[in-house]
Design a protein that fits this description.
Rossmann fold; 43% helix; 222 residues; alpha/beta; 8 helices; seven-stranded mixed β-sheet
């Protein structure tokens, strides 16, 4: 795989459909300045999330894993004026940076950052009978992906879409005896997603500036 060519193509696509703007660039810079890992989605992947939200007509979005708010901005920009995005972040410092970035993006009125253990926060929403979400984006600790999936299904409706990032792990998912806990967890998540009769799912491998990986996309069956 010619990574230089792949990067060039990714930059070409981004230049056409996901050009950088001051808000997004500042979000990346403030995240880096805060010492966050540079594991945000790429511009092209961010635009994919944006398009999926538009295709779904999403009015309510749940994101698991906020980091510096980069993907939340892409998703938030797809919401209507009365829409809402709730994004869950474990690290209080990350949440602080994300809130500032979302404020700068003009999205503070429709994006709420909640801090804490994501599964605990999701269970609180389940117990409270929270209005279903139209789209759920999972991009947090891989060991909990199966649990996030199961909890998310209780917060969705027929027709809702769930997207999970990093499900190919640079091809490591092919290693049946991988000793890596993250790889094992993603293998289990992928198998559970594919076998669950409540959803219709696919997994597509992605290549670009983030290397070889993949996204799982599923719709809750009607």
């Amino acid at each position: 795989m010619d990574q230089e060519l792949i990067n060039t193509i990714d930059h070409y696509i981004a230049g056409l459909v996901a050009p950088a703007d001051e808000v997004l660039e500042t979000t990346l810079q403030t995240s880096a300045d805060a010492g966050m890992p540079q594991i945000h989605v790429s511009p092209v992947q961010g635009k994919l999330l944006h398009v999926l939200a538009l295709l779904n007509g999403a009015r309510r979005i749940l994101e698991i894993g906020t980091l510096g708010g980069y993907s939340a901005i892409w998703l938030g920009r797809a919401l209507p004026a009365d829409g809402q995005l709730i994004t869950l972040e474990h690290a209080a410092r990350h949440a602080e940076v994300a809130r500032a970035n979302l404020e700068r993006a003009g999205l503070a009125d429709r994006v709420e950052v909640r801090v804490g253990d994501a599964l605990t926060l999701m269970q609180q929403m389940i117990d409270a009978g929270t209005e279903p979400f139209d789209l759920v984006f999972v991009d947090a600790d891989k060991e909990s992906y199966r649990d996030y999936f199961q909890a998310a299904l209780q917060l969705m409706r027929p027709g809702s879409v769930i997207v999970a990032d990093n499900v190919i792990r640079r091809g490591a998912v092919l290693e049946a005896t991988s000793p890596e806990p993250t790889v094992q967890a993603i293998q289990q998540f992928n198998a559970a997603l594919a076998a669950d009769p409540r959803v219709t799912a696919t997994i597509m491998q992605t290549v670009g500036v983030k290397g070889l990986d993949g996204m799982a996309i599923a719709v809750v069956n009607r």
